[in-house]
Amino acid sequence: MRKKLAAVALSTIALVLAPLSTNANASTTSDVVSLAKSACGSGYSVTVAADDMGIPKSYYWYVLLYNPSSGYNCAVLVKDSNNTDYGKSSYIGIGIKAAGGSWREDNGNYTKYAGPVYVHAPNTCVYLHTITPGHEWTSFAMGCN
């Protein structure tokens, strides 16, 4: 039982640390964060910025931001500059919901990013949903402010 708990704990740690990794050839985290902050507006700070959603070399980033003054979370899906679709229109999407709430989504043909989408969720976890060519992903609870 202890070995199983240790494995679960290590898996959880890996999930938490994975968003901190970055592909050396990809857009820099600061470039992606800057674009996401600009899309969301003033007062937002980054909660999570991840570059692969569990798919190596996917070349998409999701960024979750939070504004403590308003209690709103903002989510943006950004195409990496190494993405062959960067600057070209392709179908992508980002969704966000508060725990127990309903999805707010922005899906469509975009050249650089989808979003921003907002949800009021002070003191609540949120979930993200991303759509990229050939793949959909839904997050675990995150941004538990």
Give the topology.
Elements: H1 2-17, H2 29-40, E1 45-50, E2 60-67, E3 72-79, E4 90-98, E5 104-110, E6 113-120, E7 126-132, E8 135-138
Summarize the entry for a quick read.
Keywords: Signal. By secondary structure, the protein is an alpha+beta fold. Helix content is 19%, strand content 39%.
Q: What would you say this structure looks like, in words?
A:
This protein is α+β, with helices and mostly antiparallel strands and 145 residues long. The chain has one domain. It contains two helices and eight strands, in the order ααββββββββ. The chain has helices spanning 2-17, 29-40; strands at 45-50, 60-67, 72-79, 90-98, 104-110, 113-120, 126-132, 135-138. Strands 1-2-3-6 form a four-stranded antiparallel sheet, with helices on one face. It has a four-stranded antiparallel sheet with strand order 5-4-7-8, with no helix packed on it. It is globular. It starts with a helix and ends in a 7-residue tail after the last strand.
